[in-house]
Amino acid sequence: MRKPLIIIGIVLFLSACSTGQDASLPTLAGVEVVPDVTVTTEVQTDVVVPTDAPTATQLRRPTLPPPILTVTPTPTETPTVTPIAATPIPALVVSTPNADCNFFDVVYEESSIEFELGTSPKASWTAVNGAQLYRLALRQSSGFVINDNIYIAETTYTFPSDLFFEGFTYGWDVYPINNAGDQMCFAVGSELIPRRSRLPGS
What is the pTM of this model? Predict the structure, then answer.
């Protein structure tokens, strides 16, 4: 296969030399020679755009509305701060004490402390100028109130004997009341101790 190709090449070479033609290299048989190709770019100018085709503006995405911004105006003047005035504390109203309250006390010489069970003990106190009534109360030492609504105009009082029992200790207190119904002085009082009487020779 190689020998015929060599022979053909020699023949072609000699033929070219004898004819005086262009001394360019011969073209081998079986080899395809691609001619120079000039590429011409044609621009079509008669393109018709249909009237119903969307334009570039129409193909754009819709524009979102601008965000709503709330603008707070900057104050131009410095606000005036008014100090809060302190509310004055009302002064305590102190009633003028009754001078007679300094001498308001129990009259121990006329009052019973220890007394014989079954008898009526007595309570006595000094008078207060301007007093209309005196409120007297009787209680057990445990705090049980026997009677606290005794109102009298005198400065002495005798308790009923049936209010007292053996084995208990009692106490009384009293305070003056003026014509307006107000307490005039602090209460004063004393205790009452009932004793069982002893029979002679016991």
Answer: 0.51
Q: HSE (CB half, 13 Å, CA atoms) of 44?
A: 4
Domains of the chain and CATH, by start: 106-195 (2.60.40.10)
Give the C-alpha separation, 140 to 159, whole Å: 14
Which residue in 25, 24, 29, 31 sits closest to 6, CA to CA? 29
Q: Cα 123 from chain centroid?
A: 59
* Per-residue pLDDT tens digits of the chain, which is 202 residues long: 555 667 777 767 666 555 554 445 445 455 454 455 454 545 455 545 555 555 555 555 555 556 565 555 565 666 565 655 555 555 434 345 678 899 999 999 999 999 999 999 999 999 999 999 999 999 999 989 999 999 999 999 999 999 999 999 999 999 999 999 999 999 999 999 999 876 555 5
DSSP collapsed to 3 states, the chain: CHHHHHHHHHHHHHHHHHHCCCCCCCCCCCCCCCCCCCCCCCCCCCCCCCCCCCCHHHHCCCCCCCCCCCCCCCCCCCCCCCCCCCCCCCCCCCCCCCHHHHHCCECHHHCCCEEECCCCCEEEECCCCCCCEEEEEEEECCCCEEEEEEEECCCEEECCHHHCCCCCCEEEEEEEECCCCCECCCCEEEEEEEECCCCCCC
